[in-house]
């Protein structure tokens, strides 16, 4: 692991270390990160108790509906959101688009999401995330993919789900898959971890670390298709350490109320009485599309390698 | 000597790291979220996280009054980063509706060192803690801009371009740091707090 500093490093202050990047994600745990497209939405999210907002030009449901190439957001729009709220602001760069990521870093965003929701810029390589001061979050559908992203420098992982659908089934599948694969690694004898690393297409050292600790070395959130307080609570029970909500809030009938309800449900994910209470009177949820009805080439979760 | 029971306010943030550090420092540590659970603890840690979110959840889940009462009755509390903000009598650059527990007489500036790209690691000497300087991790951290007469300054960061800043304080049984000792495996500050809880 190319740790940029050791626990007993010199007295000189140092920025952009693996520890401050990963530590930032630790501070978001138990929280909800909400997709917003305007400063006004960002304020609604902050009012509702979001721990961070994700600034983007179109929410995934609209990207899906409108088609075309989807790119990093307009810097003016990102600035307006940074100026509107005091909580951390994240923004998306296309997979492999290291220049979009440089621009986002220079704008002062707090986290970059190298995201399959945007149109990929490189069908072979992801961004070398060690080369940045700003931390990155990346999507994963399984443990091997998560470990490859961490090897490239991701400081936080989220399940991919199937963004913009309001259908939580893929997020469920990815969370269960990652959890199962970690449990399997933990149960393997040491001499089988070499082949496990080969099968996962991930570095042996990282595989060994996961086998020993029983968890990823970075924070694991969930994303993709979360539309209700119950969805968020289920993801937390499946082992997510926090939740990204994309189209689910601002494509619903009453965003402010739904946002607040999802925040409460994430904290009290194991308390059915609280969940019942916060699930009442939220109005229309986003309409949604079943993942099954989306033709294979249009599935976002399959982007990333 | 029985282990003191110390709760970690588990509404949002790096709860697990504090629970682990407190257990390593000899406490019976547990996450707490409900007023009833607060009754069973001898001390409380408010973890790092997003102070605006924690402040909201404290009200929603009716923890404010019980915690205020325990603080008034002398319960030791330690807050790191967002927890420091929650313990301050005055917060700058916060949200207007953001409310803490008004514990330590100090003015804290939120996100004072800058955004995440400015987050850093540095050495900090802590008064009353033996050994080498702390290797301190600051993440979108606050600093203390003013302290009241009853507040003891325990540590400062001196080697930043922003100048000499207060980053660790204590007032009576209340302890606060801008940085996150729970992230580094250095248990000295948690031991200091466990001792404080034992003595209370």
Give an overview of the whole structure.
The complex is a heterodimer of chains A (305) and B (200). With 305 residues, chain A is an alpha/beta fold. Chain A is 42% helix and 12% strand. Chain A has helices spanning 18-28, 39-48, 60-66, 75-84, 98-107, 143-151, 169-187, 193-200, 204-213, 229-237, 247-250, 255-267, 272-278; strands spanning 14-15, 32-36, 52-55, 89-94, 111-115, 136-140, 156-159, 219-221, 243-245. Chain A is globular and about 55 Å long. Mean pLDDT of chain A is 92; it is low at 1-11. Chain B has 200 residues and is of the alpha/beta class. Chain B has one domain (5-199): Rossmann fold (3-Layer(aba) Sandwich). Chain B contains six helices and twelve strands. Chain B has helices at residues 15-24, 35-38, 51-60, 64-72, 82-87, 188-199; strands spanning 5-9, 28-32, 43-46, 77-80, 88-92, 104-109, 120-124, 134-138, 143-147, 152-157, 165-171, 174-177. Chain B has a seven-stranded mixed beta sheet with strand order 2-1-3-4-12-11-10. In chain B, a hairpin with a 7-residue loop joins strand 10 (152-157) and strand 11. The model of chain B has no long low-confidence stretch (mean pLDDT 95). At the A-B interface, strand 1, helix 1 and helix 12 of A face helix 1, helix 3, strand 7 and strand 8 of B. Strand 1 (14-15) of chain A pairs antiparallel with strand 7 of chain B.
Tell me the β content of chain A. 5-15%
Q: Widest sheet of chain A: strand order?
A: 8-7-6-5-4-3-2-9
Q: How far from one another are the termini of chain B?
A: 14 Å
Main sheet attributes: strand count, strand direction, barrel closure of chain B? 7 strands, mixed
The value of Rg of chain B in angstroms is: 15 Å
- By DSSP, the count of extended strands of chain B is 12
Query: What does the radius of gyration of chain A come to?
Result: 19 Å
Q: Fraction of residues of chain A in helices? A: 40-55%
Major sheet size, sense and barrel closure of chain A: 8 strands, parallel
Poorly predicted ranges of chain B (pLDDT <50, ≥5 residues)? Answer: none
